[in-house]
Amino acid sequence: MQPPTGSTGQGGAPGSTTTGNGTTGGITSGSSPDGSTANASTTGGQAGTSGGQGGSNSELIALLNKAGTRWSAAVIGDQTAAGYILDTNTAVYCIGGWSGSDNNVTLTQFKQLVAGGKIHYFIASGGMGGGMGSGGGSSASEITSWVTSTFKATTVGGSTVYDLTTKA
Which of 17, 85, 125, 130 could lock 79 by a disulfide, CB 3.0 to 4.6 Å apart? Predict the structure, then answer.
């Protein structure tokens, strides 16, 4: 059975469980009456296909699963975060809300999270979903500028990733 895409997250079937990190919603897993199982993200995305954008980036998924921080990575939009959340065993911090243009967090707040060791990576491109680049004129563009000028970029399976634990 193909997992549903873009569920509204209205809850699962009786006996299902819902998990999430409080930032992007949650993932609902459960059994349907015919005995099949499915996962649905409250932020969209399709399980196993990296946010509905094609094949998985197994190298990046492995990296995120080893992050060891509260959030394995930060990304610009919920649509991008959903793919990573579904494909990894980690929480992913969303900076700019659904479309990437919301002022979900300020640069000062983000710097505090990074300084506190709460976020390991920042994924800037080659993402796994519908993120909107640098977030237009929102705080996401300020955060992206700070990250790109402060930390060294590495390409992991086609995605540009910044290690927020090591300054350039």
Answer: 130
Number of neighbours of residue 44 by Cβ within 10 angstroms? 26
For residue 145, what are the CA distances in angstroms to 107, 109, 128? 10, 15, 20
Q: How far apart are CA 21 and CA 16, in angstroms?
A: 17
8 A C-beta contact, residue 60 and residue 80: no
Give the pLDDT confidence score for residue 138 in this predicted structure. 76
Q: Round the CA-based radius of gyration of the chain to a whole number and report it.
A: 16
Convert the pLDDT of each residue in 129-159 to its tens digit. Answer: 333 444 455 799 999 999 999 999 999 998 9
Pick 100 or 63 by higher pLDDT. 63
Check: CB of residue 78 under 8 Å from CB of residue 101: no
The kind and range of the H/E element at 119 are strand 119-125
- For residue 56, what are the contacts with CB-CB under 8 A and spacing of at least 6? 48, 49, 50, 87, 128
How many Å from the N-terminal Cα to the C-terminal Cα in the chain?
45
CA-to-CA dists, residue 141 to 26, 74, 134, angstroms: 26, 13, 5
Model pLDDT for residues 29-51, shown as the tens digit of each residue = 333 344 443 333 333 333 333 43
- The answer to whether residues 77 and 131 touch, using CB atoms and an 8 Å cutoff, is yes
